[in-house]
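Fold description:
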Amino acid sequence: ITGATHFYSTLFGWKSDERRLPHLSHGYTVYSVGNESVAGAIKIQRNWGKVPERWQVLFAVTDLERTIDQTHGLGGSDDLPIIDIPNVGRCASLLDHRQGLFIVMQPVAK
């Protein structure tokens, strides 16, 4: 994470903030520009097995269930079930029609 933080903070002018989220046993780095969160990073844990380092796209949505239903209707499928993250929102990991992985997040109302 340290190398990625340096690289992308320098490249894009991002600021980073290490956070603890209730559903994770380790830290989560949030990158921001001004007051707007633009990306996040998590250190790959050994107990996950062989997981390659990568960026994963996350889309903010207003209706998580509707987005999941639309994904299924377009030939996509579930990767992981819905996860509720207290004080953050609800998210799901999905696969598009070509098995491309993406995450959708419905943030908590402000």
Notes: The two ends are 29 Å apart (CA to CA).
